[in-house]
Design a protein that fits this description.
137 residues; mainly alpha; 4 helices
């Protein structure tokens, strides 16, 4: 019924964290103007703000698909209160239970997949630099 709202809420929090991280990264880039080994190592990594953007896109993409599915099944309507489960208290309790179980599980699964994806991406980015250091030795 409204399980997609959990992912939307997580995406909103991730967006705020992403913007704060972008500001931190831009300040670090301004402060580190010299070509040091630390800055060279930083460029070989994927910035956290970009990874958070991936998570935001995954959460919002899944939410849009679920929103469409709920509209298709008539659970969301274009008039107030928009969710058909908000009409009576028994349906509201069922909706909150679904949000707490299915919604949290979906958001958790998406976040888990994102963590695995970030680990794989870091390994792929790190691999060429390790190969080039072996060739130089």
């Amino acid at each position: 019924m409204a399980c997609f709202l959990v992912s939307v809420a997580e995406a909103a929090v991730v967006t705020v964290v992403e913007k704060v991280q972008e500001k931190k990264e831009s300040k670090m880039m301004e402060n580190d103007t010299s070509e040091s080994a630390a800055s060279a190592e930083q460029t070989a990594k994927i910035p956290l703000s970009r990874k958070l953007k991936w998570l935001r896109y995954m959460l919002l993409g899944g939410s849009v698909l679920l929103l469409f599915e709920h509209i298709w099944h008539g659970e969301i309507v274009p008039w107030f209160p928009f969710l058909t489960a908000m009409d009576n208290s028994a349906d509201m309790m069922e909706m909150f239970k679904e949000m707490a179980t299915v919604g949290v599980a979906m958001a958790g699964l998406i976040t888990f997949v994102w963590i695995v994806m970030c680990k794989v991406a870091d390994a792929i980015v790190r691999r060429p630099s390790e190969e080039s250091s072996k060739e130089m030795a």
